[in-house]
Amino acid sequence: MKNLVVLTGAGMSAESGIKTFRDADGLWEGYDVLEVASPQGFAKDPALVLDFYNQRRRQLLEVVPNKAHHNLAALETHFKVDIITQNIDDLHERAGSRHILHLHGELLKVRSTKHAEQVYNWTKDLYLGDFCPSGSQLRPHIVWFGEDVPLLEKAAQKVANAAVLVIIGTSMQVYPAASLIHYVKPGVPIYFIDPKPSIQENQFKNLTIIQEVASSGTNKLIEILS
Question: Is 104 a catalytic residue?
Answer without folding.
Answer: yes
